[in-house]
């Protein structure tokens, strides 16, 4: 049995991974540690094989007033947790990082793409990754997961914004693009495999298929019994527009397909997001 500790409470990804692993109670024991006000100390993590850290600030608008919190929580606290875990003889530290360390809204990312974060969120995550990598040894393995957009039933973020469009707007651009994304079920399966194998390195977990934004909107609407008119009339404006929000929705942003997970197809994933099916 693998004893797993998830650091960071009340997280969508953390709770999803916990429930997924506990489908196999003979293989996994899972605890969750709240990190609010936590001061990590050696011995605090005794008895665990793997610490999976999801603690951090995300989905919060960055301002001058809160920028310091990204470094205090996403970097300093996480590095302290990793250091204490190592001193507690934990064999593996798995960190939920982010695609934002590359600072891209468009383009293609490979293992050789340099990290160039453009905000405190991405920079704090990149600095945490670098600091924890220095702690790695034969007896303390480090797996850094940098997923693209995560979507799933009840998740926060861009999926909910697209869902609102699909449920309210009668017209949507028929614009072809490709984006790396990962369904929460596929991410949970990837985390399980990383823990089972005590893997180390930097990983790009993603669905087996690149996703077209228009196709995602179409499937969301279809699974809710709605019909949307798709038109190419706006495509010229999308191509000319330099707004970041338009790039995030319609631009191409992909990972090299090094760590694909095909347990759930894109069509099945959207169906599970939109229907009351476990």
Q: Can you tell me about this structure?
A:
The protein is of the alpha/beta class. It has two domains: 2-150 and 182-206, NAD(P)-binding Rossmann-like Domain (Rossmann fold, 3-Layer(aba) Sandwich); 152-179 and 209-256 and 264-274. It has nine helices and 14 strands. It has helices spanning 12-21, 67-87, 120-133, 158-168, 184-197, 213-223, 235-240, 244-250, 266-274, and strands at residues 2-7, 28-33, 50-53, 92-96, 107-109, 141-145, 149-151, 171-173, 181-183, 201-203, 205-207, 229-231, 253-255, 259-261. Strands 2-1-3-4-6-10 form a six-stranded parallel beta sheet, with helices on both faces. The longest helix has 21 residues, at 67-87. It starts with a strand and ends with a helix.
Topology overview:
Layout: E1 2-7, H1 12-21, E2 28-33, E3 50-53, H2 67-87, E4 92-96, E5 107-109, H3 120-133, E6 141-145, E7 149-151, H4 158-168, E8 171-173, E9 181-183, H5 184-197, E10 201-203, E11 205-207, H6 213-223, E12 229-231, H7 235-240, H8 244-250, E13 253-255, E14 259-261, H9 266-274
Parallel strand pairs: 1-2, 1-3, 3-4, 4-6, 5-13, 6-10, 7-9, 8-12, 11-14
